[in-house]
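Board notes (copied after class):
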Amino acid sequence: MAIRTVDVVIVGAGLSGLMAARLLQRRGLQVQVLEARSAVGGRMRSTTTHNGTVVDLGGQWGGATHHRLSALVEELGLERFPSHYSGDGVLCWQGARIQAPLADSRGDTLLFFDPAALNLAPGAWESTSRLQRAFLALVGRIDPQRPWRTADAERLDRTSVAAWAAAQTDEPLASLPLSWLCRVGGSGGFEPWEASILHLAWTQAVAPQAESPEAWLLRGGAGAVAQRLAEQLRAAAPESILLQAPVRLVRQDSRGVEVSADFGPAYRARAVVVAVPPQQRLGIRFEPALPPAHNALLQRSAMGAMTKILAVYERAFWRDEGLNGLGISDLHALELTADSSPPEGSPGILAGFASGERAARLMAMDAAQQQTLIRHELTTLWGPQAANPVELLVQPWTAEPWIGGAFTSFPAPGAWTSHGALAAGEHGGPGPAHQGRVVWAGTEASPRWPGYFEGALEAAELAAQAAADWCLTGDQTDRPG
């Protein structure tokens, strides 16, 4: 087999892998990106509808404190605009449809709504507010880099979110905000009985909803970021990205690494950056093998179950009715909708999400059943005009073979304080930053904003620096992440 020599191999052409490659290339290093799929972008993926509208099948938002992403978007010459939250939202809860304004602040709210406008049953809001305050107090106690060192961590890690909430109150409404964070919060895709309260609190310590992570969108779709990064890499080195080349073997020794894929030559390099979702590492044979605790943590960290639904209309008709498109519900499929239209409101785009067991049930239906249910629930939320979008797209991320889900991965109860703590070793992060010359990237590897584009970019910076250390100094300094 032919062997080519480069400085660094990047496994995965999602945002984190592409950014790591660009950072290394700009330091004068020769990089080779190997991507299993037939396109770059990973979970940052856009498509064009039949009427020419660009929509994001994957991640789409930037946040108020996502400074790396903001700087990159500006550098690439892309236009961003504020998310549309003007007007009333809709809460569907236990058979009732409630139209209400959003709260002016992120303080004492019920999933962004002003609780005073929801006409809640007596005592319901008091119990809900009390549980939210208890959760926020717990978030404030979390050690963000070493959650297993949080006081009382073992008990918290062995207690599911559902069990922790039930121990505080039996009010059904009170558990809704925590369940929503589990399923469709930025680190979501899991049910409240599938992860520990320690894990959920950690997600809010490192990626807080209070910092408005869904503050803005990109005209032309977020997928343009990945496409432009790929264009820059290819402009500097035309063969620097190889598609449809899933990596199967990473072998390292004292002199470097050898990386082999299903397609193309093998590569010899000084370091390799593995920028794929953690579960996908299990499909790669590492020699020497990864530590047992690392593999055990991967085996206990599933990807979130998430299906994204995009309903495209001629215009954002809900705005004419004083509505903002933010819908939160306990319906069978659509737990969340959000206005993803451009500022002018044409075309109108509602992005919807089915997660956890809702996603599983939806994808067990045939296409006609899916469409019928989705149209019915869009109508429940937004009225008769919502029943007939000009196009309705359904993207099941759990069905993606080289990704496996969205938005990110989550450990089973007990995994943080057992296998997570062991896997971290002396490196001091939520996982080791590297295993010798094998360096981890991808949004899950970030110490801040994991599950978001911002996290993917920070992980890329850390990984690129670690790989560059091997190339430029022959050494590697331990870093969190």
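Comment from the instructor: The longest strand covers residues 306-313. The two ends are 35 Å apart (CA to CA).
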